[in-house]
Please model this.
Amino acid sequence: MTPAGTRFDELLRPDRVGPRIAAATGVLAWTDFTAELIAGGKSNLTFTLTSTDGELILRRPPTGKLLPSAHDMAREARIQTGLTGTGVPVATILLTEPSGADLGVPYYVMEKVVGHVVRDTLPRGTPPPTPTSQHGHSEIVFSGVRVPAENLLGGVGDGFAIAQARLGPGRIHHAMRAIGMAERALALMVDRAKSRTAFGKLLSEQGVVQAHIANSRIEIDQARLQVLHCAWMIDDHGAKDARFEISAIKVIAPQVACTVIDRAIEIFGAARISDDVPLASFYAWARALRIVDGPDAVHRRTIAKGELRRTPPFVG
Model:
């Protein structure tokens, strides 16, 4: 470490370093500069050098023992030099002196640039990524658009019917994604339960957690088989004749996903609201699936109407 009270001119030797910087930058003003130690360094010393031309940064080792945790300055300089011009935001190194001829130790000088601090993001409210950002949906505004009659697809006013023809098979994809999210949430739940201890024993040994895991497996498999049956109906009878089965899986798959993901969230505790695990975004997307392509209530109405039409009255 550098002894307290050491003069900066002893550490930096402006009479030697100044001309070297002036030669490297082509700016004579650097023959005369002031220096300020940047606080917070753990071992190697970092100075802000100021002249009438602006500010630069100089890095050098301390005068005393170098801590084992100190960065290898020669490696720093090599990496920064190699990254210059690649688009990676690093300061450009203007001067390196590995021999120690000026200060008795190696040093290098680089540009002073604005730093960018990158931290893990804790989402507020509905966590990112949102369903629209995941799948690239956008709001499109048609202003002053005229469509020639010869470019019309189908008849006037038939757009909803065309959309429904696409949405029927598309809903089974939503259901499959929901099953996948539920399966992933269960895997995370099990992993957490087997590694987290509370009240003196693993979560996996707690009765309520075991019930969460068991119920999740039962419900996921029930929903998966219902989706498989719906897929068979579409393959064998077409989407129109499978409309009730499509509505059924559109209701049950996201509902099961929400339930299983919510159980996993409970088991993860506070970690559930961070991006360290995908549960928050899973839940936001699964809940959104209960609205997109028709909310649950609309699909339940479709199922009920079909059941009321095709189920004969009970005759005792």
Summary: Residues 1-5, 122-134 have pLDDT under 50 and may be disordered. The longest strand covers residues 45-51. The chain has nine helices and seven strands.
